[in-house]
From TrEMBL:
PANTHER family: NADPH OXIDASE, NADPH OXIDASE 5. It comes from the Eukaryota. One of its GO terms (biological process) is defense response. This is NADPH oxidase. InterPro entries: EF-hand-dom_pair, EF_Hand_1_Ca_BS, EF_hand_dom, FAD-bd_8, FAD-bd_FR_type, Fe3_Rdtase_TM_dom, Fe_red_NAD-bd_6, FNR_nucleotide-bd. Keywords: Calcium, FAD, Flavoprotein, Membrane, Metal-binding, NADP, Oxidoreductase, Transmembrane, Transmembrane helix. It comes from Denticeps clupeoides. The keyword Cytoplasm does not apply. One of its GO terms (cellular component) is NADPH oxidase complex.
Amino acid sequence: MSLDEDARWLEWVTKQFESIAGDDKEIDLDEFKTALKVKESFFAERFFALFDSDGSSSISLDELLKALDLLIHGNETDKLHFLFQVYDVDGSGSIDPDELRTVLKSCLRESAISLPEEKLDDLTLALFESADKDNSGSITFEELKAELENFPEVMENLTISAANWLKPPGIEQNKRHTPRYLTRAYWQNNSRKLLFLCAYASLNLLLFVVALLQNASGGVWYMLARGCGQCLNLNCTFIMILMLRRCLTWLRATWVVRILPLDQNILLHQIVGYAILIFTLVHTAAHVMNFFCIAQSSSKFLLWEYVFTTRPGIGWVKGTASITGVVLQVIICLMVVCSSTFVRRSGHFEVFYWTHLSYIWVWILLIIHCANFWKWFVVPGMIFLLEKIVGIAVSRMGGLYIVEVNLLPSKVTHLVIKRPPFFHFKPGDYVYINIPAIAKYEWHPFTISSAPEQQDTMWLHIRSMGQWTNRLFEYFRQPECQTVSTKRLTTSLRNRQHQKKAQISAKLSENHRYCNIKCYVDGPYGTPTRQIFASEHAVLIGAGIGITPFASILQSIMYRMRKQNCPNCNYSWCENIKDNEMKLRKVDFIWINRDQKSFEWFVSLLTKLEMDQADEEPEGRFLEMHMYMTSALSKNDMKAIGLQMALDLLAKKEKRDSITGLRTRTQPGRPDWSKVFQKVAEEKKGKVHVFYCGSPALAKLIKAQCEHFSFKFYKENF
């Protein structure tokens, strides 16, 4: 830091201290714990003891500044001395095994990692044996320093990262960066969408201007109302076309996908929805103003009669244009509000679902309201109706039953559904499911998490995030749902070689049971992930339950790349390697989870994938996996460095990660996307396509990085 920056930082720290300290201008242990935001009291007490240089049981501003100066401005040796003192609990000048075990146990709690006592002993032994070079039975400062030299990236930013009030404020950048939307990379990566939006805006403008000119004799307000009305004819029809899921799924398999932004249909649907809201507001306001002017110039009818009655006789169906217009305005406003992200993501999906069904009334009222709307609506409306009829027929044709249920950590329900012979899908597709036992009339979309090559059943993994999904989880957790048809279940299980007895118990364990529950499935419908096998280098990024489409894809890859061995020689080959759709040369799979238990959702699948590649060299592996646990503190945090070193050492020794049981080492914290994509770019395995499923906030960050590296970005939307 420069002198000016140092002075600003000193002033900032002083203000932070004054906001925490009491009237005595000192920070006691309780205030220190609160400010530090440390989960485990061990580290709070150790840091406090080291900060409290005079042993007064409180920290003054001078003591705080001295300690911060060491952590932020100090050299590597100064920081290491502080770290060593944290680990040296008894102050003897060396770290014995019991002290190291105590520290690692606190590190586990701080990072929200749960391991058995035996594994903690193994971690302690691995780190202690590696650091205790002279086998003296204790670790000296020099030995700890030598051990840390194996982790050069750690020392660069070693600090107490959890305490935001200890961090210096960010230094303002004077450089002016080009806005993202004006960069060449952004326009290249979004060319189809941007061109389509330009064409869409131009068409609206053309219709608006033509309507203005055709109604020039009616006055300004009437012209404005008619112009917006003509745009509404287009948009109220186009918004339906964007939700023709079967047609869009079919078009994804044609050359049209290279011209039109079919993968952005949900985004375009939302844009058109907001356009409809704006046009209806302006359309209604313009008509009201026109009625006001007419009422002022003529005393035949009052303003409220023009707006709320049929007396003026406006409209082609018994003068109902004004009344239907008011009702339409209310319904459209309600639909837009209830479809907002806040409503859908706050556990009230049913509010969005039921209000969105009002589209039927919108179309009926539009036909009554406007004499020309039916001309716009008739062809798309017939296609939409045909899609609905086909969907209902398909969903009712097969006798689908949920035959197995697994209740997974973090309230995830794994459904195993008996798959009908005629049901064909591609990796990453999704379906709408209706379970009458949960809600008779509700349909909800979920990604299929099993591979198409899995013939007998298909899987759905459903995270409890709303009323319906919570009811689903609770339904299968209740003992009542154990009662099933013994005859049908026994037959099903015999066919699937799970049981050969006539009488069985449906409940296998507290969280795993067989059942026989009727359900209906509408689909499958395509998603952007259908493009994966046409990619050369695919990067799959799943955040939390966002792994589900990639679980299907990874299983499909496993089936396609499964090796066959000749019994008479050592020759091996991939049975389906000549698949015309398969252009993949490399796959990087990145799974980001908040906690340790979430990895249990698909750990068995990932273990199989690792076993299939066990004979391959790391550099030549077709599939490379990367696991991140965001609740775990990063390696450059003093509260985690010992644990991460021990985990690395034990993983090398056992060739297995202690957190997940996989061979792939789970990385703490969040990925550094710049470094991740830089490594991908350096591999030069072909054109890179990034597929993402997860939170929208993370999607924006990843998309910006993809644009920087000129990677094609696909986001799962449905």
